[in-house]
Known about the structure:
This protein is an alpha/beta fold. The protein folds into two domains: 10-39 and 290-397, Aspartate Aminotransferase, domain 1 (Alpha-Beta Complex); 47-285, Aspartate Aminotransferase, domain 2 (3-Layer(aba) Sandwich). 40% of the residues lie in helices and 12% in strands. It contains 13 helices and twelve strands. It has helices at residues 15-28, 47-58, 71-85, 100-111, 126-134, 154-160, 183-194, 220-223, 255-268, 274-285, 289-310, 347-358, 382-397; strands spanning 34-35, 94-97, 117-122, 138-143, 165-170, 200-204, 231-236, 249-252, 325-326, 360-361, 363-364, 374-377. The strands form three sheets. Strands 2-8-7-6-5-3-4 form a seven-stranded mixed beta sheet, with helices on both faces. A three-stranded antiparallel beta sheet has the order 9-12-11. Helix 6 (154-160) runs parallel beside helix 7. The protein is globular. The model has no long low-confidence stretch (mean pLDDT 96). The chain binds pyridoxal-5'-phosphate. Keywords: Aminotransferase, Pyridoxal phosphate, Transferase. It catalyses: L-aspartate + 2-oxoglutarate = oxaloacetate + L-glutamate.
Amino acid sequence: MSVIADRLKNVSISASAAMTQRARELAAKGIKVVSLSSGEPDFPTPARAIEAAHAAALAGDTKYPPMDGTPALKAAIIRKFKRDNNLDYDASQIVVSGGGKQVIFNAMLATCNPGDEVVIPTPSWVSYADIVKFAGGVPVAVPCHEQAGFKLRPEDLEAAITPRTKWLFLNFPNNPTGAACSRAEMAAIAEVMLRHPNVWIMTDDIYEHLVYDDFQFCTIAEVEPRLYDRVLTMNGVSKAYAMTGWRLGFCAGPKDLISAVSNVNGQNGGGIATLTQAAATAALDGPQDLLKERAAIYKERRDFVLDRLSEVEGLRCHRPEGAFYIYPNISGLIGKTSKGGRKIDTDVDFVMALVDEHHVATVQGAAYGMSPFFRISYATSMEKLGEGCARIAQFCKDMR
Ligand SMILES: Cc1ncc(COP(=O)(O)O)c(C=O)c1O
């Protein structure tokens, strides 16, 4: 009898983590790998957050924290939701967890019964489907087509909802496409959801501050207040404040749901590190200028990569509104053979040949549920982006 539980049978290892590992292995052999696979800001954590953690440690703030978050951090989160999203919550409507990922994990464990369906606009972050399966739910992918700018069309959403649907996930700006929803597009999604009062909505707004060209971010509970009581609004400090290693995410929603999520949170973690909470409080309450400054840098990088790659025969690049990813279509290269003799039948073949022959790490579209594409993360320096794009261009040019 296997020691491994059945619930892990369908849960996979994250493909982006697998590619990052492959890049590390090549680097360990002395090979200069350009890594465009990791969804992690290359900026430092704001100094005031680090100083706040240091001060908290010296002040003896090193004991067990409250399960659902410190009062100071919850107050900062309440201010954040008001300031950025015009949403009103009180402290009983907030839970703090170990990263956005744990928020979603806890929420699904707290709410999914076996067979409950979770509608996931796809392409989507690799972890959603696995988390849902882990919790006993059934992920239901709804395609967000390239021709529709990778947005969720109301008619596709409507068609995906069944009497078993428990949740709809939203993630705009999106990982991996960078697509974001305008107010009108979000209102159209909300209109569908008003017709389905038994379905809850989890919105993952982790890329909220990464939008470009004056694009205005919006979130569904604000766009349609009649949905407020069925929306779990998730966010965190990982992407906006470059605090991926601190592990802090949070969510807000109706009290009963939050108390169930908080229950799971307490059982599986016992609250989040006190120093991390002090750092996150300082980041959320501090001057917010760095968000715009960094967004301007990401925009430059996005434009740079788009310029370089749109000249490459065989690639088709959609212009994303936000996040720090580009999701080129490679259908023009499927069926060809790389210079190193690798047949490119799928996007997995493409990214594996690219990393082995030209040492550029990216992630296959298959990991996000839509092929044939690959994901480039431009959360890295211009120098690396320039080198990476040149190598990708050469790799594609050499295909026969
Ligand atoms: C869409 C999305 N949600 C959540 C996360 C995870 O955030 P955290 O690092 O706060 O767990 C990621 C990280 O890649 C992501 O892309």
